[in-house]
Structure formats: C-alpha cells, structure tokens
DNA sequence: AAAGCGGGGTC
DNA sequence: GACCCAGCTTT
C-alpha cells in the first residue's frame, strides 16, 4: 500500500508538471547533475537558459574537465555562489578520473563527488537513474511539514526526524519512487509555496494536517534570521567577481575600488576569493620614478 | 548546530 | 526592506 499522499500527488504531477529540459527523456545523467548543482539555491527561471547554453558548450564531464576555469566562471555569470562552478568542474574531473567519464549510479559514489551533498546525490539517483532514493529539498520539507506535521514551515535546519518521515512516504519500487520524488518537489514549487500557498489547486488539501489545524503561523519564525545583503562582504565579493569576469586582462588592485568604499572590506573580500580559488593574485614588478615597485593584479584562475 | 556563501524576483 | 530560492562546506 502506498502512503495516502502518493496517488493524488502522482496524478496531479501527470497533469501539471513543467516541461523542463533536464526532465526530457534525451537528457543525460550528467545533464541532470549539472541542473541540480545550478539549482542549489537558485530558482528554475534563472537556471534554465544558462543550463541550455552550458550543456551546448560542455555536453559531457570530459568537455568541462578540459575547459579553462576562467571560461567556466564567466559562463556561470551571475548565477550566484560561484564556488559551485568551481566544484562542478572539479566534479567533472573526478568523474573522468574515477569513473571513466561516466556518472556513477551508486549514491555513495555520487556523494563523494565535489559539490554533491545529500540532496544532490539522492536527486541524481532518482531523476537521472530512475532509482529509489530519499530526496529531501526545501520543497519536500515544506510539503511534508504541512501535510503530515501540521506546521506552516519546517525547522530552520534539516532534522533526522524529517528525513525519517520522508523515507516512510517514498514508495518501494524504483519507478514509482523516482516519480514521487519529482512530483512532491513540483507540488512544493508550484502549489505548496512558502509565501502564499494555492491550496485551492492542491491535490491533497483534504489530507493536509496544517489545513485541518486552521493553518497556524510559523513556530520557528523567531529563529530565522538571514544575513542582510546591502553593504555585506558577500556583495563586495560579488562585485569583484563581476569586475574580473568582464575584464580581458589582469586588473590592478586600484580598479577594484568600484567594488565598495571600505578598503578593509575589499581586502577581506579579495583575500577570501583568493583563498577560495576563485581569484588569482599576481605581483607585477614595475618602475616608478626609477624605483622598482611591486603592485598586485588580479584575474580569474586558469 | 551554526555560519558563510550570490543575486534577483516578489510581496 | 524582508523573504525566498531543487544546498554544500567548514567550523
């Protein structure tokens, strides 16, 4: 017997699923992995066009492994969290070296790849290989917190009990399990949304514990605090990266002033980027008024 | 368990 | 202006 949520959600998905390129039959397992990495904290609408161009340019792990890292970072453009692009190229190289260029099907082997965590490994098992796994992303957490937990939103960080609850709902056979995983995620993305859920369009509104309880407010609200954006180190890092992506020559330190007015903050940002491998610093020896001086220039790696 | 890490759209 | 988005890695 499947869990009561499963049949109506599968039926809803058959009617309502978006036509996304990484869900098409011809998409390779590597294409699925690339989509999953790009979708880590980045919405579908921003990923889709970039994914198409990316897969056109680097269709296989071998292609990406051989690319210049500077090209990879430029192609990543403003998708955000550029370290993901670095990890993705490292992942491609690991697939070439460890797995003869073919993405493994084993979840533990996937988890061992750079940039692949619990969610992404499970997602590739289900969406690329059609096998049973426990896929728990922010959408699944929210749907299960509401329908089964009776709460507005899940706790701030993923708990063991959430994983256990999710595992209980996943159907036993591979094909149905894979279908369930994509379907419940889609339900969270399109209907059971964080801000204003469309319960009128929900296939399991009659089974929803949160709805039955009168849709009480979020109990964890006081513990959710996000880092602000304006004026942060992250913003300055982003601007430095934007400057270097746009430059076709190494950029002198003085030109990075555009990234922000606070010198200490700029230094922090650039130092961090160099430590992360996203930026390379070079010392250039020149002559000013007959004196030898050393100045720093910055560029993208590779 | 918590903090750091982009960037853009939406309410 | 706050919140949210198919999370991962490091401490």
UniProtKB/TrEMBL annotation:
Top-rank taxon, per record: Bacteria
Q: Is Hydrolase there in the keyword field?
A: yes
Q: Where does the record place the HhH-GPD domain? A: 38-190
Q: Catalysed reaction per UniProt?
A: Hydrolyzes free adenine bases from 7,8-dihydro-8-oxoguanine:adenine mismatched double-stranded DNA, leaving an apurinic site
Q: Which GO terms describe its molecular function?
A: 4 iron, 4 sulfur cluster binding; 8-oxo-7,8-dihydroguanine DNA N-glycosylase activity; adenine/guanine mispair binding; metal ion binding; oxidized purine DNA binding; purine-specific mismatch base pair DNA N-glycosylase activity
The family database entries (InterPro entries) matched by this protein are listed as:
DNA_glycosylase, Endonuclease-III-like_CS2, Endonuclease3_FeS-loop_motif, Endouclease-III_FeS-bd_BS, HhH-GPD_domain, HhH_base_excis_C, HhH_motif, MIG/MutY
Q: Could you tell me the EC number(s) of this protein?
A: 3.2.2.31
Q: Which cofactor does it need?
A: [4Fe-4S] cluster
| Alphabetical UniProt keywords | 4Fe-4S, DNA damage, DNA repair, Glycosidase, Hydrolase, Iron, Iron-sulfur, Metal-binding
Membership in a protein family: Belongs to the Nth/MutY family.
For this protein, the record's PANTHER family field holds: ADENINE DNA GLYCOSYLASE
Protein name, UniProt field:
Adenine DNA glycosylase
